[in-house]
Write a structure and sequence with these properties.
Strand content: 5-15%
Number of helices: 20
Number of domains: 3
Helix content: 40-55%
Distance between the termini: 69 Å
Shape: elongated
CATH topology of the largest domain: Transferase(Phosphotransferase), domain 1
Largest sheet: 6 strands, mixed
CATH architecture of the largest domain: Orthogonal Bundle
CATH superfamily of the largest domain: Transferase(Phosphotransferase) domain 1
Strand order of the largest sheet: 1-6-7-4-3-2
Order of helices and strands: EHEEEHEEEHHEEHHHHHHHHHHHHHHHH
CATH class of the largest domain: Mainly Alpha
């Protein structure tokens, strides 16, 4: 098994000199299993985020968005967040005590951000402002290996999936080693997560160098490599030892101290080690091979442990159901196509796919025609300077809206809202969209609701609310608004046919 490289291996840290980018048309190298390689072309480029961006992404670090946290003296908390493109991310928040040197933190994060692979939970950004130290990674929606092994609800993790975890983690470690990231801190069942397809991935957070809090291992001392207990330092062979503890977890479905497990293995009591829920799912020879591999990894002397290539060679033949998708093995429901309502209009379709350019074009073409008689209302009033001011303000607002000068459109439409005796749904709708284009989703939602007050069954008002709610990360509510807009369109269409 050779080192695997991906398309994004050219990503650079802030200190790296620019280099020529690889040919994007070249295919990813295969890994010899299933024909797939290490490519991660859909992962966004690593970037530095501002603290204000990450506050917005996590809804001001809302406690409801916490997905994991530790209670140590230098605590770190992981939040679920949502970027503007609707991509979910995991945001890990450290204390300044963990990384006093902001520059060191940024350089280290940028280095880890270059290590990309489909078996990793890839790092896509970082932030160091004031006392804040934050990492941003891909979000994994299907929990940790710890949850599926030790705290399962519906079914225990099947044997074939456990073997796949061992293989995928070995692949991830092999790639990291090839990228000169031979040290992985505190490899355990909490560091392995499952993506939207149910595939296991290794968290990139463990690739960060040891922080100043002095903790390379947060797990119980019984599971810590012997050399770390002796010297306080870890070496590449320490990672192999930790991999052995993960194999014990996979075999037993419990967190068994390595010393106890080794006693069972030496006493030929392998069946005592195996998870009873796996009965009938594996061949005895396969179980024996995995037990022997765990035993080799857990050797007291670091030099007696195998290297990562040996791990890959040992676990590859154990893959017996490569053609079966992970989510099928795990009993997970995967829905890759979002359920959208039956939408009748181009505006509804554009709103559903968050195509703001198309929404703007449609609002321009529609104009004020949905407000019956509103456009002509002023022509029947007595011609006064006040009326002329209203018409001029409306004109300037519409010109700014047409020209995508949304800041001025907001200013003119705001004046118009105050000047008009009868509120205009279209003006509220156009100002709502202008707020959206200025990243003011809450104000956009308020105006879209005002447009609905003006015309209670106006689909446009519901679609604009859906856009604003989606920007605010309220996907369920946004979907409801899309459904309501579609329902009103269907009602209108039926009444016209009648």
């Amino acid at each position: 098994m050779g080192c695997l490289h991906s398309k994004t291996a050219h990503l650079q840290s802030p200190e790296d000199p620019p280099t020529d980018l690889p040919d994007p048309n070249k295919p990813d190298p295969g890994d010899g299993v299933g024909g797939d390689g290490g490519g991660v072309s859909e992962v966004p480029a690593f970037k530095e985020y501002s603290l204000s961006e990450l506050r917005r992404v996590t809804n001001e670090f809302n406690a409801k968005n916490i997905v994991s946290e530790s209670g140590e003296k230098a605590p770190n908390v992981v939040y679920k967040g949502k970027l503007e493109n609707n991509r979910f991310v995991a945001v890990k928040r450290f204390s300044k005590l963990s990384w006093p040197d902001a520059q060191q933190f940024m350089v280290e994060a940028a280095g880890v951000g270059k290590v990309r692979h489909k078996r990793l939970v890839n790092l896509i950004g970082c932030c160091a402002e004031g006392d804040e130290r934050l990492l941003v990674a891909e979000f994994m929606p299907n929990d940790t290996l710890s949850k599926h092994l030790f705290h399962w609800d519906k079914q225990p993790l099947p044997w074939e999936m456990r073997v796949r975890v061992a293989y995928h983690v070995a692949q991830a470690l092999d790639h990291c080693s090839c990228e000169n990231r031979k040290i992985y801190h505190d490899l355990n069942a909490y560091r392995i997560l499952f993506d939207e397809d149910g595939d296991p991935r290794l968290s990139s957070f463990g690739l960060m160098k040891n922080s100043r809090d002095g903790k390379s291992y947060s797990t119980n001392l019984a599971y810590t490599p012997p050399e770390f207990l002796r010297t306080g330092r870890i070496i590449p062979e320490s990672v192999i030892y930790s991999y052995g503890t993960v194999l014990l977890d996979l075999l037993s479905g419990k967190h068994i101290p390595p010393s106890h497990a080794l006693d069972l293995i030496r006493g030929k009591n392998v069946l005592m080690l195996m998870d009873s829920s796996l009965e009938g799912q594996y061949a005895n020879d396969d179980a024996t091979k995995l037990v022997e591999l765990a035993s080799k990894c857990l050797q007291f002397e670091a030099r007696e442990r195998p290297d990562i290539n040996f791990l890959l060679t040992a676990v590859t033949p154990l893959q017996k159901q490569k053609e079966v998708a992970s989510h099928v093995l795990m009993g997970l429901t995967v829905n890759n196509t979002p359920v959208l309502p039956t939408i009748l209009s181009p505006l509804g379709k554009a709103s559903a796919r968050m195509d703001l350019t198309a929404v703007h074009d449609i609002l321009l073409k529609t104009g004020y025609k949905d407000e019956e008689g509103a456009e002509n209302e002023l022509s029947f009033q007595e011609w006064t300077q006040q009326v002329q001011d209203i018409l001029n303000t409306k004109k300037f607002g519409d010109i700014a809206f047409r020209d995508k000068d949304f800041k001025n459109a907001i200013e003119y439409y705001s004046k118009l809202v105050v000047m008009m005796s009868v509120p205009s749904a279209t003006v509220f709708a156009r100002r709502s969209f202008s707020y959206l284009m200025n990243d003011q989703a809450e104000l956009a939602l308020r105006d879209a609701m005002q447009a609905q007050v003006c015309i209670s069954d106006w689909p446009t008002a519901f679609y604009l609310q859906a856009l604003a709610l989606s920007k605010l990360g309220m996907d369920t509510d946004a979907q409801d608004m899309l459904n309501d807009g579609a329902a009103f369109e269907a009602k209108r269409s039926n009444s016209w046919r009648g």
